[in-house]
Known about the structure:
Blueprint: E1 2-5, H1 9-16, H2 24-40, H3 42-53, H4 65-74, H5 77-97, E2 102-105, E3 111-118, E4 121-125, H6 134-147, E5 151-155, H7 166-175, E6 179-181, H8 185-194, E7 204-206, H9 211-220, E8 225-226, E9 234-239, H10 245-256, E10 263-268, H11 271-288, E11 295-299, H12 303-313, E12 317-321, H13 325-329, E13 337-340, H14 346-351, E14 377-384, H15 387-403, H16 407-417
Parallel strand pairs: 1-11, 4-5, 4-7, 5-6, 7-8, 9-10, 9-12, 10-11, 12-13
Antiparallel strand pairs: 2-3, 3-14
Amino acid sequence: MKRFALRSVDEALRELRAIGVGSVEVRATVAEVLKDVRSRGDAALRDLTVRFDGVELAAPLAVAPEELRGALESSPPELVDALSKAAANVRAYHAEEAPKAWRAQLAQGQTVGQEIMPLAAAGLYVPGGLANYPSSVLMTAIPAQVAGVASIVVCSPPRKDGSVPPGVAAACALLGLERVFPVGGAQAVAAMAYGTESVPRCDVIVGPGNAYVTEAKRQVMGEVAIDGLAGPSEVLIVADADAEPEWLAADALAQAEHGAGAMGAVLSLDRGLSDQLEGEILRLSQRLNIGIDNVTIVDCPSMGAAMELVNAFGPEHLELHVADPRKVLKKVRSAGAVFLGGHAATAFADYAAGTNHVLPTGGSARFSQGLSVDAFVRRVGVVEIDAQSARALAPLVATIAREEGLRSHALSAELRGGIASGPSDDAEPIDHADPGEARA
Length: 440
């Protein structure tokens, strides 16, 4: 555990943010895996799973639907009930954010708008192996379902017997997902990006993973869409004198228990609170057997100073344990998700509150957002032009097109607008330095 006083935002950022540098070895290994899966398909997936996981995959590769249903039926009733209610909350949240088609009539009479079209296939990476994360199934699959994606593919690392973790299988059955593959790591990303004999090619790949998964997503980006490049989990907690020290300690440790690189920091506005918090962090860490190397207390001189640090850091999770959190929310410019008041622990949204837990990390909350329905749809522009609006628009288009030396663009508009082409059509075209810049 560390504790320091906030004197300079830049110094505090250096203390809180360990700048990760991609390993050359990781990049090279991932490139080799991607090439292998792209060329050999299922055979590569089987060989790589033996190499990295020590598991022989069964044939066929996909988990049988009856296995998924069996996992759900054999799950404890309280788990099924919790997953069902969490799923309902997540679905309700994403239904509210789903983009809608629209139309508007502009000045020259033309009608413009957008249609919202779902992607055909989405690939979900769900961490697994020794771990068991049914919550990640809910968080990645439900926004895809709300978007209307027809084909949803799930890849999750195998257990030693070649199966996917039971909670993951149960969550898939609960949501009606049947294309589930016990494949993990960079090879899973490759399979969903390129397609194999068994794994369908996807249009987008989403979900958290380790350094190899993240690097694989980076390398396939452009051939397939991705949700982002997630790193270790993090939380900043702004707390005033009335905050509950035990709650703060539990929330900071909840991030630390995510493992390597995960961090929790409390930006304390009261030195007395900081003193109590040190004791609570030590007590709870011993009780829960959680390391505290990446837990930090920052003594802040004012709310303004604390919020300056928050916005410079861009935390994945931001908790506001202050007297008027709604007022402070107006000062937040950078955060993946914001939790208002002492009762709003990050853990609630990790599982069941309704918002998505796949969020930007590593400072990327300064310019990106959490997983949403937007990741699974395309906004397609729609234009309707009748004869009257064509007559009104044609002179504008022709003037701009001729300025750019694109005479056929001008003619195309003038023909619709009933305008005779001018003598400048016979002029020499402009020699563009880059013909690729010409408008389609």
